[in-house]
Design goal:
32% of the residues lie in helices and 17% in strands. It is of the alpha/beta class. It has one domain: 3-Layer(aba) Sandwich (Alpha/beta knot), CATH 3.40.1280. Strands 3-2-1-6-4-7-5 form a 7-stranded parallel β-sheet, with helices on both faces. Strand 1, helix 2 and strand 2 form a beta-alpha-beta unit. The two termini are 30 Å apart.
């Protein structure tokens, strides 16, 4: 027995249900890939930030601005916070009352499924694609979140992991 044809929304219908223009800074949810390895991941995370109403916090490095420009498929300005000193910035975020969450394999990490939507300003720390979050930065985390995996790999691509966490914290999944 068939349920009948599925209704597919048109582009005009989709646009009518979304924000009219990009936000300047929501400052409620920040994705922070502070030790990036690949520029392509930054463009993907920038697109995710737009989708969930978050901002991106990145270190000041010569290649990052170009990576963001190339990866910004929205072709309009996005909310980017530039970080000179990642460890100092994370410490300042904690002192200011932000919830600092690291995506990391740790004994105390909670599974992604148990992560509740953010209720206050939240910074999501994403580590280096090969090395994870540096040891000195893990001391600045309030908690860690682990994305369970069944396959043989130890972790997901940083853009995929950051996107999953962002959607969960934004309450969209």
């Amino acid at each position: 027995m068939s349920a009948g044809p599925m209704w597919v929304r048109t582009r005009a219908e989709l646009r009518g249900r979304r924000r009219r223009r990009a936000h300047s800074c929501w400052d409620h949810l920040l994705l922070a890939p502070l030790w990036p390895k690949h520029g392509v991941n930054l463009g993907t995370l920038l697109r995710t930030c737009d989708a969930v109403g978050a901002c991106l916090a990145v270190p000041v490095r010569p290649w990052i601005r170009d990576a963001l420009d190339r990866g910004n498929t929205l072709r309009r300005p996005s909310c980017v916070h530039w970080v000179n000193n990642p460890l100092g910035w994370l410490a300042a975020q904690r002192r200011a009352g932000s919830d600092v969450i690291g995506v990391e394999l740790a004994d105390e990490a909670i599974p992604l499924a148990d992560l509740a939507p953010a209720r206050r300003r939240t910074v999501v720390v994403l580590g280096h694609e090969s090395d994870g979050i540096p040891t000195e930065a893990t001391a600045l985390l309030d908690r860690a979140v682990e994305i369970p995996m069944i396959g043989t790999g130890l972790s997901l691509n940083v853009a995929v992991a950051g996107s999953l966490i962002a959607y969960k914290l934004a309450g969209l999944i």
